[in-house]
Amino acid sequence: MDEILTKPSVDDIRRAGADFDSENEVLEEALGELFRQYPHNTRPAQVLLKVTALNAMYSTQIPLYSTRIPTLFELVDHIVALDIDSRLERGDEGLVFDIAKIEVPSKAIRFNYSFATKYCSWHNRNAYPIFDSRVYEYLCHAVNHGFLDSFRQKDLWVYAKFKAVIEQFQERNGLGEFTFKDIDKFLYLQGGVLVRRREKKEREPIQAEPILVPVPGQPGEMEWSIENFATPEAAETSRKKFTDSAGWTTKPADADFKEES
Q1: Does pLDDT of 159 surpass 90?
Q2: Which of 23, 40, 160, 234 sits CB 3.0–4.6 Å from 229 for a disulfide?
């Protein structure tokens, strides 16, 4: 699926699902088997296996060792201490924030938001849509082309609001029959096309056509930004400095957002 869709249909979601499954069969099977074998989060060794696999396969940039920021091992302890199993089962949206924010004495606070959405999603796909750079990119594209209502970009950092945006995307485009996992596959592929096109434009002379809603860096760098700033505000400041310095004309997804009365 290399074309960019300006209004997705039921057939588009089904085709994206088939394409995604074909391209990622081994990865999906491996992660699925791992999470089925170890569905609970009370034993550190089992949580470490799941955290390590997600971190490696999704490039969420959580270090194995660091004296400055929380490590994989500290994240494992953090997850076990939260006692999350019952909350995962009932789809508690606040759990994403609780997993994402990790504080370790003498180290910088981290907000592993993208990772947290993936960790929850792999435990309960029906309750937790995934947030990452490709999803962000396509949602902005959807707003700019009129098949998703405007939203404040900072609201995507509040998981309940992000989930509401995904649900509105489903409703607005007649996609209610699909699960969050189905929608994730579509957004992943379409966002990937947008990322590749944006990167191509970045290599062209500055006189090239303006880019709508650019996101900084190389593939995976939105995850890097999310994982390596202590707050959403800090990550957004970095993104804004990047786009301002690039000299592009941009239209934020929330440019036309109106507060409901």
Answers
A1: yes
A2: 234
